Amino acid sequence: MRLEGKVAIITGAARGIGRACAERLLAEGAKVVIADVDSARLSETAAIIGTADNLLAVTMDVSRKVQVDALISTVVEKFGHLDIMVNNAGIAMMQDFLDITEADYDKVLSVNLKGAFFGVQAAGRQMIVQARGGVIINMSSINSGLANPRVATYAISKGGMNQITSTAAVAFAPYGIRVVGVGPGTILTEMVEGSFIDSEEARRTVLSRTPLGRCGTAEEIAAVVAFLASNDASYITGETIYPDGGRRVLNYTVPVKE
Ligand code: NAI
User: Fold this and answer.
1) Residue 19 Cα to ligand 1 middle (Å)
2) Is 154 a catalytic residue?
3) How far is CA 67 from CA 13, 63, 111, 115, 249, in A?
């Protein structure tokens, strides 16, 4: 129960990694606000993972600053304060580099990068007013620093996100607010099964770049988020941590078992 008494927001929490983070933070004693653009899926998830006492579900779009600001106000109204902000909502578009249109570029960057920036800014502003510290966690990716031109807009957005993390960490350090990133490798969620792994060949390619020999689970990422959100990580700020099965340090490839 490392997070007893804490209030956390997790965006993109209707499913996948965000939902796993919500379940883990609830289990660690936090009150949790799950936010997502998919209101049907959000209500389904809310009914399963929490109660009216410890969970609030808010339908919103992170790419709209006004909705991000409103989310923070709603949370403070309901739970009194905000201690942990997890900017997790994200989208990926798989396409050839030369096929990316202005609309595609704007779409991915406005959810992943602009959404995270204004999430960090609004949470930081609230935490500074409260004067009780806080932790902001940005869901980056292994693609923030590796080149896969099939997801260029996604990779660009996550590269930029790491700089949101480091610049905000320095800006907010005087207030005792930590800002950290988590950069997962390949985690089996609907996002990955719908785009990154769409064939047996793609699966083998991923595993050939994964020394631990398997994809990760959303729960493994949630465990890292819970650690970073807790006082166990009290001296970590500005860094992005990579739970990636060893991909980032791998040179060349590893053999793939069946
Ligand atoms: P997912 O696609 O399963 O879940 C993403 C959630 O974000 C969905 O519930 C979706 O409705 C919500 N969302 C999308 N646009 C939104 C918006 N504008 N406003 C509010 N909510 C919105 O994806 P997954 O795999 O759970 O990914 C979560 C985060 O983790 C993303 O930021 C993703 O980039 C990151 N990530 C995922 C990896 C993976 O292998 N699954 C690897 C590295 C990073």
Assistant:
1) 10
2) yes
3) 16, 8, 12, 10, 38
| Residue extents of the structural domains in the chain | 7-189+218-241
Query: Model pTM?
Result: 0.98
> Which residue's alpha carbon is at the smallest distance from atom 33 of ligand 1?
90
Segment 87-128, tens digit of pLDDT:
999 999 999 999 999 999 999 999 999 999 999 999 999 999
Out of 2.60.120.280, 3.40.50.720, 1.10.760.10, 3.30.200.120, which CATH number does the structure's domain 7-189+218-241 have? Answer: 3.40.50.720
User: CB neighbours (10 Å) of residue 160?
Assistant: 18
Nearest to 180 by CA among 220, 238, 128, 227: 238
Atom of ligand 1 nearest to the CA of 158: 34
10 within ligand 1 shell (Cβ under 6 A): no
For ligand 1, pick from 91, 137, 224, 247 the residue to mutate: most ligand atoms within 8 Å of CB: 91
